[in-house]
Design goal:
Helices cover 38% and strands 12% of the residues. The protein contains 26 helices and 19 strands. It binds thiamine diphosphate and magnesium ion.
């Protein structure tokens, strides 16, 4: 239980009270009242500050206090892990967050410990207390909490993996874990409509994870009533079939009932029996937020009835009627809290704002720079086979080799995704009944056999599940290297990839980080790949701050860049072109277990002086063919730059080349308009205009989908011939 600032006067302290009140002493009960009242007072103060335009947003925990304070006093700050949502002020206060800290966030102060003035109020974050930074999208917390619970279990089973190791991301990631830890995650009734809620219940149940789900049912999601969100109007009935769960439904405005239900649930989870879900019925007396007026959709009688269930009013009356505290004692508690909140608010409103020019801080790791020479190593000669002729490996081989090497070196690496395991029914493998799959493209082949089923396993067929869990695991210090089977199916994970994984460090002011690697099979030229097995779309992720995006064109680069991705301290999207996996182009010998290429360093594939082609991925071999033909047929010397990493990218290499050749062609496989090449072309036009002898040209796919019929596919995707024609036009300008 958090320590009290004020010692309230307890009018009566019956000795048998503890048994009567679920084991809570009068002192405990008054402490709970104090926290509930404090929570409401902060909300009231914020509402005042918002009206005075000293803060810019307010969302309250009003009506949820009994349930949340009960959870907060039962759970262990800095020991258990917390993924709360915005109504959880009472929980966070009980865990040890101070009113001043909360009000610093409300004003957007530089010293706001949760986000450095970057997030709205009630977006809790406190690394010391294990309160993991939350966001505004409803429901993204669930799968991250699943990953967090899995990480805790993993470290308990592999304690050696938690050790600090210098020289990679592990140097900067404190890991802590406890055998009986609980991962708390909460949300409102409306949010249970999100698919990620169901995905998380599925995995929590299947893996019997030590998780407490708290659903705070105030019967509304802004103006939408619960029966519209939830079939039959009651989430408890819908989830009842999930195996291994402990379920409880409780009046969340009643302190003792909430406390009892939560205690039983937490004991169940802590005992390792599986996850629990507590469904608390609460009220929402202050509308959805200060931007909402519930009178527009809730009639007066409904609102009046709700007021009668106000948990603070009810608990106060209970304390008095039970003789636990008298009016005077409670009044004194309330006055003290009012003073405390006033004092905190006065201090917060005069706090300094973030300094101009600091907005880029913590977009990426401040500790480890993947563009630095620390990530530059030579291929090891001794690693080369004696007979070079037999040593040429495909991109698929060398990605697989890198994963094998890194998993050996770093026990924190776990690999999961759809079909990535050799065989989920591992007895088939053990008994040599099957050979094993290891990915639809076989990139993860043999990893499960080598490192075990707790390090390499199949996920459910759900992309948000993959990325959300990876985010939670990486937050705890694991290094998930997950696979999205086809770029075409990345979209269910979009929320996690856009709003979570790359944002966590920035929005928590580096309080948390999640340097996971997401490998994605991408691209077309498959002869029949059609719409849903040919997509590119890298610019969507290069357009996402906080994400590193890598797109190798050959085996050696794929090996060296994947190793950098795994060892670095930032989230990385690693794009692997399916057509290049087993291409003859770009095969290489195994470079040894420590070969790394820094991010942001392009490769000059071919030196030239008449025109520059800037490209990456599958356009590299196609542009190379075009360049060779230009040489043959026109005696034009083409310089070919393979960017290799798209974010960050090597502007210096582009600028140097274009300044030399004075002509630039940017080539990409993705559709032309609003694509990655548009950014490069715009920057060349902007910064190198004086060096140009011709307009910047682009080659790309037609602005449509990729068709199944191979002749139409060829017409849509950019071919070597298209690059050649563009080069002719450009050099004739
Ligand atoms: C993905 C997403 N969609 C919409 C919103 C806008 N929004 C914020 S809160 C909210 C309602 C949430 O209702 P509920 O889960 O019942 O929680 P409550 O606010 O009632 O406690 C909505 C629609 C959002 N933040 N995120
Ligand atoms: Mg609600």
């Amino acid at each position: 239980m958090a320590t009290t600032k004020v010692e309230p006067k307890i009018a009566t302290a019956p000795s048998a009270a503890a048994d009567k009140y679920e084991g809570l002493t009068p002192h405990h009960l008054i402490e709970i009242y104090r926290l509930m009242f404090l929570s409401r007072r902060i909300d009231d103060r914020e509402i005042m500050l918002k009206r005075q335009q000293k803060i810019f947003f307010q969302i309250s925990g009003a009506g949820h206090e009994a349930l949340l304070v009960a959870a907060g006093v039962l759970l262990r700050p800095g020991y258990d892990w917390f993924y709360p949502y915005y109504r959880d002020r009472g929980l966070c206060l009980a865990l040890g967050n101070t009113p001043y800290e909360m009000l610093l966030q409300a004003v957007g102060a530089a010293d706001d410990p949760a986000s450095g003035g970057r997030q709205m109020p009630s977006h809790w974050s406190n690394p010391k207390l294990n309160i993991v930074t939350g966001s505004s999208p409803t429901g993204t917390q669930f799968l991250q909490a699943v990953g967090c619970a899995e990480a805790g279990r993993y470290f308990n089973q592999h304690p050696g993996a938690a050790e600090k190791v210098d020289g990679d991301y592990r140097q900067f990631k404190e890991v802590s874990f406890n055998g009986d830890e609980v991962v708390y995650v909460s949300a409102g009734d409306g949010t249970t409509s999100q698919g990620e809620f169901w995905e998380s219940m599925n995995t929590a149940s299947n893996r019997k994870l030590p998780m407490l789900f708290l659903i705070e049912d105030n019967e509304y999601a802004i103006s939408v009533p619960v029966e519209v969100n939830t079939a039959g109007g009651n989430i408890s009935r819908l989830v009842a079939g999930f195996p291994s769960f402990h379920f409880a439904e409780v009046d969340g405005t009643d302190v003792l009932k909430s406390y009892a239900a939560l205690k039983e649930a937490i004991d169940y989870v802590r005992d390792g029996k599986g996850p629990a879900l507590v469904h608390g019925h609460v009220i929402r007396p202050y509308s959805h937020s200060l931007s909402d007026d519930e009178k527009l959709y809730r009639p007066e009688p409904e609102r009046r009835l709700e007021t009668e269930r106000d948990p603070i009013k009810k608990f106060r009356a209970f304390l008095v009627s039970e003789g636990i505290a008298d009016e005077a004692a409670l009044h004194e508690v309330e006055l003290d809290i009012t003073d405390e909140v006033q004092e905190a608010a006065d201090k917060a409103v005069s706090a300094a704002f973030p300094k101009p020019g600091t907005y880029l801080q913590y977009l990426y790791s401040p500790y480890l720079d993947p563009t630095s020479s620390a990530f530059e190593t030579e291929p090891i000669r001794s690693a080369l086979p004696a007979k070079p002729a037999g040593g040429e490996k495909t991109m698929a081989d060398l990605i697989n080799a890198c994963l094998k090497d890194e998993m050996k070196r770093d026990e924190r690496i776990v690999v999961f995704g759809e079909d990535v395991a050799d065989c989920s029914r591992e007895e088939y493998l053990r008994e040599n009944q099957v050979k094993g799959k290891g990915g639809v493209f076989k990139l993860t082949s043999g990893l499960q056999a080598a490192y075990g089923s707790d390090r390499v396993f199949n996920s459910p067929l759900a992309e948000a599940n993959i990325v959300g869990r990876a985010t939670g695991m990486a937050t705890r210090g694991l290094k998930p290297v997950v696979e999205i089977q086809f770029f075409d199916y990345i979209w269910p994970a979009m929320h996690q990839l856009r709003n979570e994984l790359p944002v966590i460090r920035w929005r928590s002011y580096s309080g948390f980080s999640c340097p996971a690697v997401v490998r994605v099979a991408i691209g077309g030229y498959l002869t029949g790949g059609a719409i849903y097995h040919s997509q590119c779309g890298e610019s969507i992720f290069t357009h996402t701050p906080g994400m590193r995006v890598v797109f190798p064109s050959n085996a050696l680069d794929a090996n060296g860049l994947l190793r950098t991705a795994i060892r670095c301290d930032d989230p990385v999207m690693f794009l692997e072109h399916k057509r290049l996996y087993r291409e003859t182009f770009g095969r290489a010998q195994y470079p040894g277990p420590d070969y790394m290429i820094p991010f942001g360093k392009a490769k000059t594939v071919r030196l030239g002086h008449d025109v520059s082609v800037i490209t990456y991925g599958a356009l590299v071999p196609r542009a190379l063919q075009a360049a060779q033909r230009m040489e043959r047929e026109h005696n034009i010397s083409v310089e070919l730059i393979d960017l290799r990493t798209l974010s960050p990218y090597d502007w210096e290499a582009v600028a140097n080349s274009v300044s030399k050749t004075h002509r630039a062609l940017v080539a990409q496989e993705d559709t032309l308009s609003w694509g990655y090449g548009a950014e490069i072309a715009a920057r060349i036009a902007d910064e190198l205009f004086d060096n140009l002898d011709a307009p910047v040209k682009r080659v790309a796919a037609k602005d449509t989908f990729v068709a199944y019929q191979p002749l139409v596919e060829d017409e849509i995707l950019p071919q070597a011939n298209d690059v050649y024609n563009a080069l002719v036009e450009l050099t004739e300008y």
